[in-house]
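subagent[fold] <- orchestrator: predict structure for attached chain, return tokens only, no commentary.
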Amino acid sequence: MARFVRWYGSSPLHLLVLIASFAVTGYVMVRLFAVRPLAVAIWFVGAAVLHDLILLPLYSLADLSAHKLLRHQAAREPQVPWINYLRVPAFLSGVLLLVWFPLIFDLSIPYPDAARLTEGVYLGRWLAVTAVLFVASALAFALKLRRVRRATHAKERPAPGHHAAP
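subagent[fold] -> orchestrator:
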């Protein structure tokens, strides 16, 4: 087993899940190409171009800007890596926006029988979900920071019965 992990870089379960995901993706691709090959090809090329030429530079710039703006000075207190507490809710909110943008921005043909909702509710709900994601992430960051600081302060305190040297 150790030899396999050294050779592959992860467990056999990881390899099996990877093979299964490729198999499912291959099956879906065969099914999609059988129905609408040109539309699927255009969608994949468009998604690659949109991601590589527009989205990647934008979110890389946003990430670098967040690092520059929120950079902390060296302090005596222990530091907790904070960037992922900003990246995760931003990523999840962005994925929700990407998937549901026609409904969020009222660009779709309404389906009143399917959802039984008016078109105007989606923007407010996406903003609410985004706010909840950022608040939950901030709370998780605060709890982690509190735990790290408590552990650091506990290490600095002398043991009971021992006095610090004069």
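orchestrator: received. Logging for downstream: The mean pLDDT is 85. DSSP finds six helices and no strands in the chain.
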